[in-house]
Amino acid sequence: MLSTIPDSKVLESYDGLIIYQTTAPIEKIRKLRFFNNSFLLYQKFGNLPFKEMIKFVLVSCHPGRLGRYRPVTSLDPGSSKYFRVVFSQENKMVSVNPATLEQVEEYLHQETDFLVNRSKPDVEFWFLKRSEGFGLFGQRLTYHPDYADILEPGELRPELAYLLCLLSDPQPDDVFLDPFAGSGAIPLERARSFPAKKIIASDINLAKVKKIERKVKDENLNVKVLKSDTTNLSEIATGSITKIVTDPPWGLYNKTVNLKNLYTRMLKEFSRVLTKDGSVILLVSNQALLQKILTLSPRFKLLMTHQVSLSGKTAVFYILRKAC
Q1: Tens of pLDDT along 138-149?
Q2: Whole-prediction pTM value?
Q3: CATH class assigned to 2-144
């Protein structure tokens, strides 16, 4: 993933956190779609309480470093002049002593000329304590919308849809298919972010198909929408698809779904529609089941798996290639 950023080097990697170094401009970092949030890191600490972390910043941070990135925001198009300080311990917001907070706010004001606004800031400076036993101090670079107000129930977040498309090694001559399109997150993201010869979104649910059609029309995207059963993609010619990227049912909410039967038939149909060297990206929750099916099936070669946390549940993405 970081290969998309020039001159990048991963320094440390943890659960849900990557610390890396790059010469890429900050505006490019802000546009990366596969990170939930990005921070400009000013300081890493050992296992210190917030008070000691703040004391270190007050004494040791070099003048002129803080707040050097000043994004234009809707609050003040001319400049970024309001800030707040956020404290997070193991991914939960926490409060600190008011006097300590005021002390660090005054210091940051003197260093940056920003003014304190704890409710509507342009810029956020974060102190974070990690469960691994270290702390971080940095400036937040990205601000994502509240997806609870935007996404449909069960719809993939845009960052994850982008990442799945990126993992497929997108090429301009791809004929791309998502046969479990649902709300359309994956094929729409492919159309928005990566050029392709053809993009097909398919789902068996007519209401979902109609919704995708409306989104495609509203955004004028290059996506063909089909109502099809994934185990019988009769409208798609044999050997015509180069990439399949999809999020099939997990069976968590509909216990009547026979996942073994569905996945077995699904992979058989995928093998039919794919080109000789076609590939598949799957996001599933039942790793043991899919692993068993793949072991019994000679149709695909497993290239890679990776475990992720998704809405509090464990998921695994698989990268497969059609066996010759």
Answers
A1: 999 987 666 666
A2: 0.77
A3: alpha beta
